Amino acid sequence: MNMNYTAEELAFRDEVRAFLDDKLPADIAAKVKAFRPLTKDDHQRWQKILSAQGWYATHWPEEYGGVSWSPVQKHIWDEESSRYGVPRSVPFGVNMVAPVIIKFGNEEQKQTYLPRILSGEDWWCQGYSEPGAGSDLASLKTRAVRDGDHYIVNGQKTWTTLGQHANMIFCLVRTNTEVKAQEGISFLLIDMDNPGITVRPIITLDGEHEVNEVFFEDVKVPVENLVGEEDKGWTYAKFLLTYERTGLAGIGLSKAALAHLKQLASRRLKNGRPLIEDTTFSQRIAKVEIDLTAAGISNLRIIASVEGGGVPGAESSMLKVKGTEIRQSINDLARRAIGPYALPFVEEELADGFDGEYLSDEHAAPLSAHYFNNRKLSIFGGSNEIQKNIVSKMILGL
Amino acid sequence: MDFRLNEEQQMLQDTVARLVRGEYSFEKRLEFSETEAGFSEAFWGQLSELGLTAVPFSEELGGFGGGGVEVQSVMTELGRGLCLEPYLQSVILGGGLIAQAGNDSQQEQWLGGIASGELKAAVALQEPQSFYDLNDVATRAEKSGDGYVLNGRKAVVIAGHCADLILVSARTSAPNSGDTRDADGISLFALSPDTAGLERRTYPTIDGSKGCDITLNNVQVGADALLGEEGKAADVIEYQSGRAIAALCAEAVGVMEVANELTLDYLKQRKQFGVPIGKFQVLQHRMVDMMSELEQARSMAILAASVADVEQSDERRRILSAAKNVIGRSGQFISENGIQSHGGIGMTWEYNFAHYAKRLIAINHQLGDDDFHLERYANLLQVG
Ligand SMILES: Cc1cc2nc3c(=O)[nH]c(=O)nc-3n(C[C@H](O)[C@H](O)[C@H](O)COP(=O)(O)OP(=O)(O)OC[C@H]3O[C@@H](n4cnc5c(N)ncnc54)[C@H](O)[C@@H]3O)c2cc1C
Ligand SMILES: Cc1cc2nc3c(=O)[nH]c(=O)nc-3n(C[C@H](O)[C@H](O)[C@H](O)COP(=O)(O)OP(=O)(O)OC[C@H]3O[C@@H](n4cnc5c(N)ncnc54)[C@H](O)[C@@H]3O)c2cc1C
Question: What's the CA dihedral at A335, A338, A340, A346 to 10 degrees?
Fold first, then answer.
């Protein structure tokens, strides 16, 4: 047993810190730390800096322009970048579709799409969910019918995160209705500029526009855009989901949110003393900090176990459940910490360039909305109940 | 024992229910919320036409002479409709403070208007540093000639942006210890929002309502603005906040009822894996837990209503804190688990559930959250 970083790992951490000290734009970091919404431009600005450093594609082999960091190095990057307030990469291109293209795509697809993901030329979104296919993803109905050199796509996707910014969408579509649900699905790459595609905003409960509905009406997609084999898309989809889930535990993000909470609680008053000195509140913080410590070690154990290669299995589902619960608890406490100021929702304070007087303080404004928005953590990426079903089936054999 | 409403109380509740059902669709509620007032003046007018704004006032005032149970009937139904009108602020709190602390001429001047709905009051009792403790008052009122000069800032005054009369707590005597949380020395003043030096910063609230922060900058008022005895308002404030807690509990029960109905419907309707999701045992058990939480909340709302208007005692304080604690916890449970049971749909603005969820969380931030009341309850345990 050795829970310490090696000398090389420590040197890597110093390198990461030096880079972030030097290159992370202060305005972006400030927004991230205060849970304020990021613009498309913020994301793209930071992505260019990362790409220039060669650190954007941490899940890719080097031959395609990725960094082949070890799991421990990735972990160090996650920790440090959360601490510094690095924006979370929009994962759909770089961390989701790219590994699928690398593993299952043909040479031409690799040549076409991978460089454009690295350069930020393409913004991808994920077209998995449909109105009738959420947890039961295999029941999806969007049809793709072969017509010469094209597929004609008809149907509807929903909950498409940041689809309003995207020019490309990777979709699961039904190409065969005669076979078992899982066996007639294909994985298609679709240009959103194609005629017949309509994107409609869905406003979430906090008033934000983060997700969308995407409609396909006789959309012509060239057959070259099929990844792998027709009807074999379910395999690729599941491969992608393991990548999706590994990131969802968000231990680093929870640590950053906890640090923010403690600062907040040191500045707010209760009975004339800092809230963090209040018995009830400090015990609530202590409990979540202890839970996070445990989840952090569980995370490291999973990371260590895949250090030699491979991807985590059902353990990552347990971590997703714990990790999201912990982050939601921290968000809950942050909202509680501002007491009655959890009620006001002063939207202009969240806007870029706000230079008026803050109603309470600059950290209070987004906290309630953030708490509500992060209820999504236990729903998306395969809801927590589904993760538990996976664990009980895969690990417990129930 | 009989927990049923009597005939009159039932009629009252049915009246409000019919009105809310007829006039307050979810779509209309969203529209009302977007207006400058943040609620429907027309609906407020209907409430008062039916005499509902007069429910808790004595018959001499043209009121109904209603107590905790009558208020409970009204508030539960307003909760079911997620109504935005300032009933709690104006009728219960504003009206309550004036009825208890005001002298004859002040009562005559304002209570009739509040009872008839023509005059809206709001209460400015908390401050940026006070964290639910209503005795934590730093705003000062210095004697000046016949009257007073007020300076300070009041926080999160729900419905203060549209009130015709604002009841402000301020410290009139320097506490011996220099402690701004001393109960002794707090006074209540009734101010017109047009008074020079009073400024309001209005904002929407997370649950679709509106409020404001108020700064008082050398605000001069006459002696007739003082409500009740100088320096002795803390007890009145505590007593009336207790009535408001009971009312909020009743509102929360109405909100939770609908939240649970919506969730149950959804479990029966939404199909995944070829079956309604309500067939999955985890979701069944969770729904059962949500119902049990509602039952606990309902019991406490009834208990709270039963002490709302009785004489102040530690027993009354304990019950109201216990009720607010239960409501805070059960509200959060139903809110979070209801969203989860709905999946993505529960996260959307367009679907009404999310707004019920937000109101439940918001209620926990009014008049003390579950932690605040747990501590208050624990302190009363020690005392006896
Ligand atoms: C903010 C947000 C962003 C999203 N982004 C994307 C995106 O970019 N691309 C994309 O494709 N999708 C996205 N999703 C969709 C997400 O993956 C789905 O919401 C999720 O899979 C749940 O599906 P559902 O919403 O249809 O809920 P349902 O499947 O209808 O489930 C409703 C409830 O029932 C439970 N349930 C269902 N089946 C079972 C079962 N067998 N056992 C126990 N409980 C069960 C669920 O856990 C949930 O609590 C996003 C969702 C949200 C909320
Ligand atoms: C101290 C004690 C005193 C008792 N006294 C008496 C007595 O005087 N007379 C008498 O007749 N019996 C008595 N019992 C028996 C008691 O009623 C049973 O133990 C009880 O009904 C549970 O049955 P079981 O022990 O066979 O557990 P099982 O029925 O085998 O259940 C095992 C576990 O599975 C769960 N489970 C089972 N079915 C479901 C389901 N459909 N969904 C979800 N979970 C499920 C149960 O909740 C339990 O946790 C006593 C038991 C105890 C422990």
Answer: -80
